[in-house]
Amino acid sequence: MLVNQFLVVAALLFSMGTYGLLVRRNTVMILLSVELMLNAVNINLIAFEAYLRTSEAIGQVFSIFVITIAAAEVGIGLAIVLMIFRNRQSANVDEYNLMKF
Amino acid sequence: MIDFLVLAAEEGAHGGSFSEGGFFADTAGIMLISPFVAFLLIIWLGKRMRNDGAEFAIGAMAVNLVWASVLFFQNMTEGIVREVHFEIANIGRFQGREMIFELGWMVDGLSIMMYFVVSFVGLLVFTYAVGYMHGDRRVPWFFAAFSLFAGSMLILVGAPNLIQLIIGWEGVGLASYLLIGFYWEDLENVKAGNKAFLTNKVADVGLILGAILVGMSIGDFSFPAISEAAAAHSEALGAVAFAGGLLLFFGAMGKSAQFPMHIWLPDAMAGPTPVSALMHAATMVTAGIYLMARTFPLYQAFAEENGIREWMIPIGVITLFAMGLLALVADDIKKVLAYSTVSQLGYMMTAVAAGGYTAGLFHLFTHAFFKALLFLGAGSVIHAVHSNNMSDMGGLRKDMPKTFWTFVIGSVSLAGIIPFAGFFSKDEILATLDYEGYVAYMWIAIAGAFVTAFYMTRAVALTFFGTYKGHGHPHESPAIMTTPLILLAIPSAIAGFLNIPGVKLGSFGNFTEWLGARIVPMGDHHPEAIDWTLAAYGLAAGLGGIAIGWLLYGRDAETQLARDRLEIPLLYPLLRRKYFIDDAALGLVGFTGGPLARATDWFNTYVLDNIVNGVAGAVRYAGRFVYGGLDQRGIDGIFNGLSAVADSAGSSLRKLQTGRVQQYATSVVIGALVLVVVVVILQ
């Protein structure tokens, strides 16, 4: 079955993204990790699309949506990071602790 | 004896049919209301009037006299029986009958006579008081209370039922209390007022219980209903006739100063003299006699069976004789007259109790005139010499001729000398006692007549003869005071002619028939002619009294005072101490004020107070428990506890919100992993 290899790759990518999300301190790197996770999902979508051979190409359409949303998300995310960086002179996510009790 | 009621109706000149009375009877209520209107007007405007509001009081009495006179003359020709009443409240059902509380007015022979007496004497006394009270303290209040006094008496005599009678009765008691204690700056006067009020209150218990007993027995408090039930010899009424009758008599004993409840009347002299005049003549002491006359059928119808007379007559006889003796030793001229009144009330009570309806009321009628005259005359003398004591008077006949002559007329009338009014009324009482078979009592009454003449002669001699023993130079009183004296002297002299046995005045008979005009026609034995033997005994007693009195006090001016010492051992101190009755009464009060009061006080302090305090303490403890334990700790505690739990939960839970984004993300991932594991396991 050809689909298993794709799934393994996607799982690896997702795990790496998750790891980066939880461990990295640099905000930009966290955003990149989120991109990895999104792309892992894209790989899954395309793999299942190819595997099931649906006529409507739903998986590909969804991938396009995810890429668009991811682009927008990165745009907004980087803008926020930029603004915080200007105030705090730091990109360390541990110092972003205003939103607490 | 029941026959008498029917007999009177058949025998009477009117044949038992009476007129309704027309306009004046329909509007007789004006007499009951006008003194109260005057009372309010005096309180409101009295101080601004020239005569301190006496105008209103006199005006009200003048209006009343017009009504009373018209009714009196109407009654003389046709006989009026009219009852007007208004329903005030429904008291409830009793033995299947509606008990209605009514107010209104009676217009019949008895009440018309009383209206006339109260209005006539009241008008003259009020007029006299203008002169007597001139420049005194609180004159507007005096006339206001005076109006209240007369008004209450009119409410009483106009009452168509026992309840309104009690209202008037208490009103009279209140007004007399206010007036006896009129000079309340002196403690003595306040005590006299208290004594009168409290003695009357004791008697009032009898009246109220008697009224309840009689009223409940037939389910109706109205006098016509009681009279008709008595005439029909109702069994329900007969059952209570003895007890109820004696209780009502007890009430009458208090108001009419019968032995041994006479003690308040001599002390009541503490009030201004016009008050004494009105009280002794018309408005207060006659109330008891009036009550006995009004409820006369109750006594008469059942007298044969229950022997109630044997209980009542001795009281009257003791009063008429023993109290007359006390007047012999009094130095205060008003006290002489006061004991004389008590004695004369004894005559009236004896007569009414013995079945002499007309005799008792006729004596009330004549007595009202000459006793008012005597009191006003005494007031005139007191006004002149500024002392109540006869040892400060003497020789006043030349200085005060009008007072002297009117006083003498009153005295001989009271002494029962023919042809003055007192002769005829006293003779009628003697005749009644003779006819009813109370011969022993009749002889005591004749002896009483002797005593009456004796003390009146003594009073006249000590006051008007001999030499003047006081200070200053006395003058005759002003015309406003002497005119009422003269106007009262006229009926004192001639009122007796209204009821000469066998002499009819006009078509409707004489005083006997006039008084008999009642819903159940009244009457008693009335002789066809004067019993001259009996009259001679009475007259001889009166003349004998005058002669002895004159011998002792009249002839020798210088030794008057020395002679005023009938110091018979035992008797004299007994009389001076008023038979120790006052002492006994005061001793009883002293006993109640001493050990009994202390015992009551102890009981009150240690038992009643402790019970009350205990209950209060328990309630307070319960309240404290409900507030502190139940409310504050219990209910409030629940809510405080709940909020504290929420508070502490919140303050510990909020620590989860660290603000570290990666911790949140970790939680999300762990949660997701847990879900995955759960899903895998469940599959």
Short note summarizing the structure:
The complex is a heterodimer of chains A (101) and B (683). Chain A is mostly helical.
Feature tags:
heterodimer; A: 101 residues; Helix Hairpins; B: 683 residues; mainly alpha; 2 domains; 72% helix; disordered N terminus
SSE layout and pairing:
The complex is a heterodimer of chains A (101) and B (683).
Chain A: H1 3-23, H2 27-52, H3 58-88
Chain B: H1 3-11, H2 22-26, H3 29-45, H4 54-77, E1 82-94, E2 97-107, H5 109-132, H6 139-158, H7 162-180, H8 187-218, H9 223-231, H10 235-255, H11 264-267, H12 273-283, H13 286-294, H14 296-306, H15 309-326, H16 333-353, H17 357-385, H18 401-415, H19 421-436, H20 439-464, H21 479-494, H22 511-516, H23 532-554, H24 560-563, H25 571-576, H26 581-593, H27 595-653, H28 661-682
Antiparallel strand pairs in B: 1-2
Helix pairs in contact in B: 3-4, 3-6, 4-5, 5-6, 5-12, 5-17, 5-21, 6-7, 6-12, 7-8, 7-12, 8-10, 9-14, 10-13, 10-14, 12-17, 13-16, 13-17, 15-16, 15-20, 16-17, 16-19, 16-20, 17-18, 17-19, 17-21, 18-20, 18-21, 19-20, 19-23, 20-23
Beta-strand residue percentage of chain A = under 5%
Name of the CATH architecture of chain A: Orthogonal Bundle
Mean pLDDT of chain B: 84
What amount of the residues of chain B lies in strands?
under 5%
Beta-strand segment tally of chain A: 0
The top-level CATH class of chain A is Mainly Alpha
Identify the quaternary structure here: heterodimer
Notes on the structure:
By secondary structure, chain A is mainly alpha-helical. Chain A has a single domain (3-93), classed as Helix Hairpins (Orthogonal Bundle). Chain A has 3 helices and no strands. In chain A, α1 (3-23) packs antiparallel against α2 (27-52) and α2 packs antiparallel against α3. Chain B folds into 2 domains: 3-586, no CATH class; 595-635 and 658-682. Chain B contains 28 helices and 2 strands. The radius of gyration of chain B is 36 Å and the shape is elongated. Classes of the chains: A mainly alpha (101), B mainly alpha (683). Chains A and B meet through α1 of A and α28 of B.
